C-alpha cells in the first residue's frame, strides 16, 4: 500500500488530460497554455503533435508501459513518463504546473497509476486532477469503446464539449448518463473547451489532506440507472466503522475486484478517531489516511464511492455495512 504522507510542499501539481479522439483536448491545452493564470505550465504529450506556443516545454513520448512485477495485472507504470518527469524536474525552476495529454485511444490508468506507484515521481509531483473532455456529439458512436468509458470513469473534472452541436435535450440526457458512470466528477458544459481555469487547475482531486465531500446530489438520489457496464455506486451509512473489519474487507476486495474498480473515494468515520479517514483508490492501488478533525456539530458518517465496471452493488453494500460497529450509535 502506498502513502502520500509527508510529501514536501514543493511538489509540482499534475493535471492528466484525457478524452476520446477529437474531443477537444488540444483545444483545451491551448487555452491552458495561453490563459493568464500566472502559472508556468509544462506539457507532456504522448503522441507526436505540435503545440506551437513559445516558452512552453512540450515533450513527446512513445508508448512504453511496464506491468508491475508483483503480479498485479491491472497496475502498470509508464517508464517513459517516469524518465521524462525526471528530466523535467532538472528544470524545475522553469515551470510550476505539469499537464500530461494522453492520446485519445489510451487507457488513462497507467498514467494515473504512475503517480501512485513510482517513488521518485511521488517525491517530486502530486496528481492534481484527471480532466476528461467528452465530445457531446460523437461520444454516442464510441460508448462501446472501453477507452471512452474508462476516460470518463477516472475523471475528477469532465468537460462536455461541443455543446453547439447537440440539442439541450440531448445534452441533458448525456449529462445524466455521464453522472451515473462517474459520481465524483464535476461536470461542465463547454464550447471550444472554454472553461474557467480555476475549475480544472489546482483541483486537489487526489489530495487526501483536502478531501472534498462527495456530491450530496448523487448520494441523496434514491434510484440510479445501472444499465451501463461502467457505473458509480455510492455507499452511505451513519455511525462508526471498525478499522480492522474495514481493512480486512478492502484487503480482500482490491486484489479480487481491483481490475474492475477504476476509482474509489471515501470519507469514513472510524471508531475512536477524532479525524476523518480518507481513502483514494485506483484499481488495486490505494492511499488511506486521516485528514482533518470532524467539526463540532458535523454529522459523522461514512461515504464511499466506487466507480467501475460490472460492480456488484448488493455485495459491496452488504460488505460495507458489515464493517460498521455493531451498536453504530454515538461512539464514533
Ligand atoms: N463545433 C465544435 N468544434 C469543436 C469544439 N471544440 C473543438 N472543436 C473542434 O474539434 C476538432 C478536434 O479538436 P482537438 O482539440 O484537436 O481534439 P483532440 O481531442 O485534441 O483530438 P485528438 O488529438 O485527435 O484526439 C477541432 O477541429 C476543433 O476545432 C466545439 O466546442 N464545437
Automatic annotation (TrEMBL):
Pfam families in UniProt: cobW, CobW_C
Stored CDD domains: CobW-like
Keywords: Chaperone, Hydrolase, Nucleotide-binding
GO MF terms, alphabetically ordered: hydrolase activity; nucleotide binding
Catalyzed reactions: GTP + H2O = GDP + phosphate + H(+)
SUPFAM superfamilies (alphabetical): Hypothetical protein YjiA, C-terminal domain, P-loop containing nucleoside triphosphate hydrolases
GO cellular component annotations of the record: cytoplasm
Every CobW C-terminal domain range: 230-324
Highest rank taxon of the organism: Bacteria
Alphabetical list of Gene3D superfamilies matching this protein: CobW-like, C-terminal domain, P-loop containing nucleotide triphosphate hydrolases
InterPro entries membership: CobW-likC_sf, CobW-like_C, CobW/HypB/UreG_nucleotide-bd, P-loop_NTPase, Zinc-reg_GTPase_activator
Record-stated family: Belongs to the SIMIBI class G3E GTPase family. ZNG1 subfamily.
Protein name per UniProt: Cobalamin biosynthesis protein CobW
Organism: Chamaesiphon polymorphus CCALA 037
Amino acid at each position: 500500500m502506498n502513502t502520500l504522507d509527508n510529501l514536501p510542499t514543493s511538489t509540482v501539481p499534475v493535471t492528466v488530460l484525457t478524452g476520446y479522439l477529437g474531443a477537444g483536448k488540444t483545444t483545451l491545452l491551448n487555452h491552458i497554455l495561453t490563459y493568464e493564470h500566472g502559472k508556468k505550465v509544462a506539457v507532456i504529450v504522448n503522441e507526436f503533435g505540435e503545440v506551437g506556443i513559445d516558452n512552453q516545454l512540450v515533450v513527446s513520448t512513445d508508448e512504453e508501459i511496464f506491468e508491475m512485477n508483483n503480479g498485479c495485472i491491472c497496475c502498470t507504470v509508464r517508464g517513459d513518463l517516469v524518465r521524462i518527469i525526471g528530466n523535467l524536474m532538472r528544470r524545475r525552476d522553469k515551470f510550476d504546473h505539469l499537464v500530461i495529454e494522453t492520446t485519445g485511444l489510451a487507457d488513462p490508468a497507467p498514467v494515473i497509476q504512475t503517480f501512485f506507484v513510482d517513488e521518485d515521481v511521488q517525491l517530486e509531483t502530486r496528481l492534481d486532477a484527471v480532466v476528461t473532455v467528452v465530445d457531446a456529439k460523437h461520444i454516442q458512436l464510441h460508448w462501446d469503446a472501453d477507452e471512452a468509458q474508462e476516460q470518463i470513469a477516472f475523471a475528477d473534472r469532465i468537460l462536455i464539449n461541443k455543446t453547439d452541436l447537440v440539442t439541450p435535450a440531448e445534452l441533458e440526457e448525456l449529462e445524466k448518463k455521464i453522472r451515473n458512470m462517474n459520481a465524483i466528477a464535476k461536470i461542465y458544459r463547454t464550447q471550444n473547451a472554454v472553461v474557467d481555469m480555476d475549475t480544472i487547475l489546482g483541483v486537489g482531486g487526489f489530495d487526501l489532506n483536502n478531501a472534498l465531500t462527495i456530491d450530496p446530489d448523487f448520494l441523496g438520489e434514491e434510484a440510479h440507472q445501472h444499465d451501463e457496464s461502467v457505473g458509480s455506486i455510492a455507499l452511505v451509512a451513519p455511525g462508526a466503522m471498525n478499522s480492522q473489519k474495514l481493512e480486512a474487507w478492502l484487503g480482500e476486495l482490491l486484489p479480487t475486484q481491483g481490475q474492475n474498480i477504476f476509482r474509489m473515494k471515501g470519507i469514513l468515520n472510524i471508531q475512536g478517531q477524532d479525524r476523518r479517514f480518507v481513502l483514494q483508490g485506483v484499481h488495486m492501488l490505494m492511499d488511506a489516511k486521516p485528514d482533518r478533525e470532524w467539526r463540532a456539530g458535523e454529522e459523522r458518517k461514512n461515504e464511499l464511492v466506487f466507480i467501475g465496471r460490472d460492480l456488484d452493488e448488493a455485495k459491496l453494500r452488504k460488505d460495507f455495512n458489515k464493517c460498521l460497529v455493531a451498536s453504530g450509535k454515538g461512539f464514533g
